Amino acid sequence: MNNKKLFRVGFIQNNPVFGEIESNLAKVESLFSSNSADLIVLPELFSTGYHFLNREEALTLGESIPEGPTTQALIRICKQNQTSIIAGIAEQDGDSAYNSAVIIGPDGYLGKYRKTHLFDTEKNYFDPGGLPLSVFDIGSVRVGVMICFDWRFPESARTLALAGADVIAHPSNLVLPHCPQAMITRCLENRVFAITADRVGTEERIPGSPLRFIGQSQVVDPDGNILVRASETDEETQIVDIDIEKARNKSINSSNDLFKDRRNDLYRT
Ligand code: ACM
């Protein structure tokens, strides 16, 4: 993988059963033997499901990172398949619960990110993340990580791009319709690739209040092209080759460079 400019990336769009960590994980693991890639992104909370009812549930189903069984299983999968995985999982750290993502390479655990912008009822059971939005080296490719609703805050993707991200890995559990299109703008604004890995299906943990997830996992390039996009309803794995050099050139014509033309003297952040 080192120094090669074509990078094979993809996502798994799954439909986990809430609380069934072992079988949700086993189902995802079974897909790796038939799909080879440099980087696979899995959805937010891919092994637990999404809709926790309270903090106790989040702490019980959450795992320590990297010692917990889900991270350890992902480390084994990455070693066996010589791949990298970025996956959303529930994290328990003492009395704190986080909506986290783990970053794992073929040689093992690289780090974690904790969702910064919690969505709706997540605020009732997760703590907001306080780790920096960070970029990880996967071979010679720089991969930034954000989780789902972070898309609604353009500062998240911008921070990752300014930190040198070529690719934004974006584990998600989307319930609002706008994100797949909005991520095209995030890619255009920053000239980065983005891999959004979403889930499908419905969770009805509160009778009469179903949450339906919109699928449409996708890979978008720095020109805003949708390279692949999954359906709204089916479990799917999709993989595509991307040319990383495209993300390293921030000029959009002979006069404009997206980073050099920024007017920090006028912006208020
Ligand atoms: C979301 O942030 N899972 C909508």
Features of the shown structure:
Nitrilase/N-carbamoyl-D-aminoacid amidohydrolase; alpha/beta; six-stranded mixed beta sheet; binds acetamide; 269 residues; 22% helix; single chain
CATH topology: Nitrilase/N-carbamoyl-D-aminoacid amidohydrolase
Tell me the Rg in angstroms. Answer: 18 Å
Q: What number of structural domains do the residues give? A: 1
Q: How far do the termini sit from each other?
A: 37 Å
Q: Which ligands accompany this protein?
A: acetamide
Mean pLDDT, to the nearest integer, reads: 96
How much strand content do the residues show?
25-35%
> What's the architecture, going by CATH?
4-Layer Sandwich
Oligomer, anyone?
single chain
- DSSP strand tally: 14
The CATH homologous superfamily: Carbon-nitrogen hydrolase
**Major sheet size, sense and barrel closure:** 6 strands, mixed
Overall morphology: globular
User: What is the CATH C-level name?
Assistant: Alpha Beta
Model regions low in confidence, pLDDT < 50 over at least 5 residues: none
**Total count of helical runs of at least 4 residues:** 7
Q: List the strand order in the largest sheet.
A: 5-4-3-2-1-14
Q: What is the N-to-C succession of helices and strands? A: EHEHHEEEHEEHEHEEEEEEH
